[in-house]
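Entry:
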Amino acid sequence: MRRLLMNILLFCFTLSVFAVSDTWLVLQLRGGSKVAYIIPGKTQVSFQDNDMIISSPKMEVRYSKASVCNFSFKAEGDVVDGIEPTTVSDIKIRHVADDVVEITGINPTQAIHVYTVNGIEQSPNIIRTGDSATVSLASLPIGVLLITISNADIPAFKVVR
């Protein structure tokens, strides 16, 4: 009986650890670069026509199927080992809150632009430190926003604020 109780407690503890652990979606692109996304909530990968669509309740990004060699889901610690932090073309995007997106693996010359779905460029608060940027969307209109990174191998990605 005691052993059964210990196994149940261990199982519940394991489930709670997995529930709070972050999972990354890592894409290997044809050009050789890797892009990693961490998106809060359930992440879904689907295919429509010639596109691969990565979506969650708060974010969406589309890739041409021809541009993606491989994709996988990894635990947060695995991704850090799989993506060399010194490689500029390896970009990590993390939607950390309703109004905050963190982007790492970009160089200081790559501009970050935010647009409404109507194509109107917005002026978010962007804090840059080395190869990373924190984009605050708090002052922008509520709704769907598109974020682009200049000279990157990734398409614009949608964020719901």
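Confidence is low (pLDDT under 50) at residues 4-21, 79-89.
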